[in-house]
Write a structure and sequence with these properties.
Blueprint lengths: L1 H11 L4 H21 L6 H20 L4 H10 L7 H21 L7 H20 L3 H19 L6 H29 L7 H21 L3 H23 L6 H19 L19
Helix pairs in contact: 2-3, 3-6, 3-9, 4-6, 5-6, 5-7, 5-8, 6-7, 8-10, 9-10
């Protein structure tokens, strides 16, 4: 340990001011001194805090791109098959409430930052789902409603902290409920359709990491219980993704079955499908 300490200390004692200030803002003066200046990994509480901060930053970084594969699948296929708009509506509402609650409570950004980034991506996906479903007017209404809700939640004059606490409790329920329509859609269609595996498994890992970071940095049971319940349903969705990995949906399977049945009937009667009836030469005399 002494060799490691003597090797690292010349580096940690001479960090550039922006890096040092950033580390102090994350860890605090005491843990910064213990972990980076003294190189003492035996300080369990500081080590847990450092791990929690690292996970939080990692989650925020991953959240910036977590829904990009889903967006690309929608844009490339021009289809919202297998994606539940209700699921995105509930999840976005839950994230908007949680974002306002965390900001107004003054919690560290590293414990909730991904909610803002994912909420933005959710709005884009939800609009595309409505657009591809031929509901452009509903998409405009959806955006207007979110804007009004966001203004109300961040305004102390409209929604006080006591009411926001009740809404946060409801946001946990919304977050859990948002997974149910998607789970039902996958089960009903017998396939995952345009659902992105990258997004599903990142959600699973992220919700598990958030349980740890919440236990370490946020003394709020409302937020903790929401992450625990969310992890459970994310696990169900991930299990569906694995189960239906290479399975065609029930609708596409039934469509293919009907086509094969039509070809079989045509071959049994000796008839072959033709694109249209051709006109033969006329035998009627002219003049």
């Amino acid at each position: 340990m002494d060799i490691l300490r003597s090797t690292l200390q010349p580096v940690t004692h001479n960090l550039p001011p922006p890096v040092r200030d950033f580390a102090v803002s994350l860890l605090g003066d005491q843990c910064y001194k213990t972990l980076l200046l003294d190189i003492d990994p035996s300080a369990t509480q500081c080590l847990k805090l450092a791990i929690s901060k690292g996970l939080g930053i990692g989650i925020i970084g991953a959240s910036a791109v977590v829904k990009i594969p889903q967006l690309l699948k929608l844009l490339n296929s021009k289809s919202a098959k297998g994606i539940s708009f209700l699921s995105y509506l509930l999840e976005t509402a839950s994230y908007l409430i949680s974002l306002a609650y965390n900001v107004r409570q003054g919690f560290p950004f590293s414990t909730y930052g991904e909610t803002a980034l994912i909420a933005i991506q959710n709005v884009v996906i939800a609009v595309l789902v409505l657009q591809y479903g031929g509901k452009s007017a509903a998409a405009a209404t959806f955006i207007a409603g979110l804007a009004a809700a966001g203004y109300s939640l961040f305004s102390k004059e409209v929604v006080d902290m006591n009411m926001l606490s009740y809404l946060q409790a409801g946001a946990g329920v919304l977050g859990v409920a948002s997974k149910a329509p998607q789970i039902w859609t996958v089960w009903q269609q017998g396939g995952t359709g345009q659902l992105s595996a990258f997004a599903v498994f990142n959600y699973l890992a992220g919700s598990l990491s958030r349980i740890f970071t919440t236990l370490q940095e946020v003394d709020d049971k409302l937020i903790l219980y929401g992450f625990v319940a969310g992890f459970a349903l994310n696990a169900v969705l991930a299990a569906q993704m694995v189960y239906y990995w290479n399975s065609p949906s029930k609708k596409s399977s039934s469509r293919k079955g009907k086509q094969r049945e039509g070809y079989a009937m045509g071959s049994s009667t000796g008839a072959t499908p033709t694109p249209g009836k051709a006109k033969g030469p006329s035998t009627r005399r002219r003049g």
